[in-house]
Write a structure and sequence with these properties.
Two copies of one chain form a homodimer. The relative contact order of chain A is 0.08. In chain A, a hairpin with a 4-residue loop joins strand 8 and strand 9. Residues 110-118 and 225-239 of chain A have low confidence and may be disordered. Chain A has nine helices and ten strands. The termini of chain A are far apart. Chain A has 239 residues and is an alpha+beta fold. The interface between A and B is large, with 78 and 80 residues. Chain A binds a DNA duplex (30 and 30 nucleotides) through residues 1, 3-4, 22-24, 32-36, 38-39, 41-42, 53-59.
DNA sequence: CATACAACTGACATATTTCGTCAGTTGAGT
DNA sequence: ACTCAACTGACGAAATATGTCAGTTGTATG
């Protein structure tokens, strides 16, 4: 029972690697006929999975997707709604849109009962400073994902502007501002940059691979050795 | 195609009302035999949906669940992960657990490719003040959901402690502290309480229904007429 | 205690869906 | 022209789902 549904899920799981797959290969892996694969592709496409096939080439997925589990509890739903509300308020437009769309899908699917006009018993109010520098965040996120070296113009607390190449490792949210931790090629060390103080930000065209002593793990290991560092940082970041 | 799957989804949709349903009624609505309903219930239970049947009584769902849509994009996944990270850091344990469990389900299901040890390129660091008063939040959330009057002991900024009955309407997250907006029966007006300053909090046993002039809509309509109110509030809340 | 109710279970025949096979067509690149 | 691989339609075989029937087993109620 349900073997078909399982196969569809596994198909998506395979296609998530973003690479090319022929129906023949998929049929071999899943131990069904090619015909079945073609039918499954129809089903997936009809369900909104962005899979595309090209004659003579194979199948690929436009963008990675994932299939969530099938049951969330009320409290998980509430956590989701709160999280999306915060993201919608405190993150850059790219993530805002995603958060809205995600919550929309969820609410749209849970369409039946509607207890009150205001469904979720909370509001989220972020600070203006969190919004400054949002323009750079999509690029920074992509740089973290794909390992791109960025060139930024940064205005320090002392109002001095420096231009430098950085290898972004992680962004941090402090409830009021966003920062980006990176390996700074100018200073040859780890630095954290308040994203609202980044004046320019562009790709250099160079990429970077994880390098001993320059990875996010190294950075986190370093910071965690000094227990006072975190509190200090908060103080500095938010004054 | 997929008629069975659709029926299962509709079954959950019906059971979401949290009330009692007999197999006979469900069979009538879905236009299948009772036997099929029993088989479907097996399937749902096997899929982790918390549905329980009691002989001689009927079927009920322990806690409301919902079935998410089947495809999320990468950026939506990232928004979800960020949201859950923030909730996990800045909300009370009940929501923390839910956020963790939700993200766990999602990641567990998307188990295959794992580009790097650190999957999400961000960290979230909340303030200690956000954590104070967390003990009361589950009760407050329930009171908002179910319309319960609460009796609280509140220590004002001036350090005066008052005891009062309130009708909680909404909680707000300000990036650093949580507040609860409520109709205050003592002052006969809307008040916002910093949750970390609530010393005691208990049910009164009384409930309340939406009442003209005392609803969350009235409150929001009122606050929005004064554009400066919000900024003031932030200043006060966060000093 | 008897009765009603409704969840459950097993068996078996029937209906429906799903799958494999085969025999094509189409479109793109070489 | 040729290859590759996505696509399509048809049809029978296999697997699955469903209805019917005939029970059993807890729970609640008079």
């Amino acid at each position: 029972m349900m073997r078909r549904a399982d196969r569809l899920a596994e198909l998506v799981e395979i296609l998530r690697d973003g690479r090319l797959h022929t129906a023949r290969d998929l049929a071999a892996v899943l131990e069904v006929s090619e015909r079945t694969i073609y039918r499954d592709m129809d089903t997936l496409a009809a369900s909104g999975v962005p899979v595309e096939g090209e004659r003579g080439v194979g199948y690929m997925m436009r963008e990675p997707v994932f299939l969530p589990p099938l049951a969330l509890s009320l409290i998980e739903l509430e956590a989701l709604a709160l999280g999306m509300a915060i993201v919608g308020e405190a993150a850059d437009p790219e993530l805002q849109v995603a958060a809205e769309s995600l919550l929309g899908k969820v609410e749209g699917h849970a369409a039946v009962r509607r207890r009150s006009p205001r469904k979720w018993g909370f509001g989220v109010y972020a600070f203006e400073t969190a919004r400054a520098g949002f323009v750079h965040m999509p690029l920074i996120r992509r740089a973290i994902r794909d390992g791109l070296v960025l060139r930024i113009a940064y205005r320090s607390i002392a109002e001095e502007v420096t231009e430098r190449d950085i290898r972004p490792l992680q962004t941090e949210y402090w409830g009021r501002v966003w920062t980006c931790s990176a390996w700074c090629e100018l200073r040859a060390g780890f630095r954290s940059f308040r994203i609202d103080r980044i004046e320019k930000c562009a790709e250099t065209g160079r990429g970077f691979a994880p390098e001993l002593g320059k990875t996010i793990e190294d950075y986190l290991a370093m910071s965690s050795t000094d227990p006072s560092a975190r509190e200090d940082k908060v103080g500095i970041l938010l004054r």
